[in-house]
Amino acid sequence: MIEQQHIDRFIALLGPKGVTTDPDDVRPWTSDWRDRYHGAAAAILSPASTQEVAATVALAADLDIALVPQGGNTSMVGGATPPADGSALILSLRRMNRIRSLRADDNLAVCEAGVILSVLHDAAEDAGRRFPLSLGAKGSATIGGLVSTNAGGTQVLRHGTMRALVEGIEAVLPDGSIFDGLDALKKDNRGYDIKQLLIGAEGTLGVVTAAALRLVPAIAARAVGWVGVQTPADALALLRLTETMLGDSVEGFEVLADETLGFVLGHIPGTRAPIETRTPWHVLVEIDHADLSDPSPAERLEGALAEAFERGIAIDAAIATNEAQADAFWRIRESLSESERAQGPALQYDISVPVAKMPAFMIEAAAAAQARFPGTTASSFGHLGDGNVHFHVRAPKGTSDGPAWIAAEGQAINAFVHDAVVAAGGSISAEHGIGQMKRAELGRLASPARIAALCAIKAAFDPRGLFNPGKLIPLPDEI
After folding, report:
1. Taking every annotated instance into account, which residue ranges of this chain make up the domain FAD-binding PCMH-type (predicted)?
2. Which of 48, 122, 166, 221 is the most exposed, having the fewest neighbouring CB atoms within 10 Å of its CB?
3. Is 478 helix (H, G, I), strand (E, B) or coil?
């Protein structure tokens, strides 16, 4: 039980600005972004420096109080929601929001955990560089959260996830010690890679306080195209063709069904279909050049699409003629999640399978889900190039009580979809993490060796289980 005397100790340590106790101010941070998980916390602790984080963690350990690290609270899997019993305090990193350095010559930015992703984007742009990771929550997601969840996004095909973009990490470990690994060393063979253990650990092993991030040259010119195809297999063939002809200039490659495009056109004002022909599937492709002396990206993309037409891969296509049109194409992609939600209750899955198996999975898994659960509709969209799509199973039309439908059917549908993913050699979490939403399923489906390794690492770093309890690591009865 967390008592007032405990809160007073933290106030003495952090000052009144560093501790929030008003229930009205705390409450918004005790529920997840999707409003599926609800917890309780007596206070939010908000240290303003790495040293204050270390002192806070040390005091919490001394008081045997669990901490739930939190950034922008944009977790899609309940990964930053405190326990419902009020046994933990929220450790907010939002006050730590400085970009400590941004060196264009080194293509490196050192950011504190509370820096908002869009703020980093703007700072990098001002320096003639860019941070090549973007997602829908860029206006609220923080660097610490992105590191802790190994975030992905629409540019993974070319630049990789956060694991590939983090050059160094500073973090506070559960005993209050500071791991200083911000030096961006290209070669470092001093044993286990602590940095990589902390990336994607969802705050269960340490509190990320800062990260050194890789920047890339700013885009000098780009071409954005919209291509209509018959099947996901044709979309994959188009991807391989563009990779062969255009090399690593392919920045993004997204696929969606015509039905999904219709959701956007019907829900988002001002959107319009990029091509005139109605095709069963659509591809959004972007190629970027950092050097204006390179051939025109639009001309290169046009050449690749001409070859796609010649091979019978593409049905219709359009290349954006200006930046406004290119942004309009991408607006469709970025509006997919919102438009899907507007269709009614649904179960959403962030999954990955080997790229070669993805076209068949997108068709067969949807058909199998609809057959197994009559009245539902299923579809997927997303990052075909890296094998990550967002698979949705929507409730039967006319379902008015979404929570009741999820309570009645959710567990069976979850198991059905995840079993299909594992059968295809895939992962039940591609970029959103495990959190508490997928914890039991990880315990059910992961190999004994993986579970044993996860538990051993957690025990080594946090033997008392005080860091983000109830997240990522399956409980004993879930294994």
Report:
1. 37-218
2. 122
3. helix
- The answer regarding whether domain 99-217 maps to CATH 3.30.450.20 reads no
d(CA 386, CA 226): 19
CATH number 3.30.1490.20 given to 221-337: no
For range 119-135, the mean pLDDT: 94
What is the reported pTM?
0.91
d(CA 318, CA 308): 13
Cα–Cα distance list, 272 to 156, 250, 265, 330 (Å): 27, 24, 6, 12
Q: What is the predicted pLDDT for the residue at 382? A: 87
User: What CATH code would you report for 4-92?
Assistant: 3.30.43.10
**For 254-287, how does the pLDDT look when each residue is reduced to its tens digit (9 = 90+)?**
999 999 999 999 999 999 999 999 999 999 999 9
pLDDT for position 479 = 84
CATH of 344-423, one of 3.30.70.1230, 3.30.70.2740, 2.60.40.3600, 3.40.50.11750: 3.30.70.2740
Top-confidence residue, 432 or 198: 198
Phi-psi region of 15 (alpha: psi -120 to 50; beta: other; left: phi over 0): left
CA separation for the pair 416, 154 (Å, rounded): 27
As a whole number, mean pLDDT of residues 1-15 equals 95
Least confident of 117-131, 144-158, 315-329, 419-433: 144-158
Q: Tell me whether residue 197 is exposed, middle or buried, using C-beta atoms within 10 angstroms of its C-beta: 0 to 12, 13 to 18, 19 or more.
A: middle
The secondary element (H helix, E strand) that includes residue 310 is helix 297-310
Mean pLDDT of the chain: 94
Contact of 313 with 234, CB cutoff 8 Å: yes
CA distance 88 to 37: 15
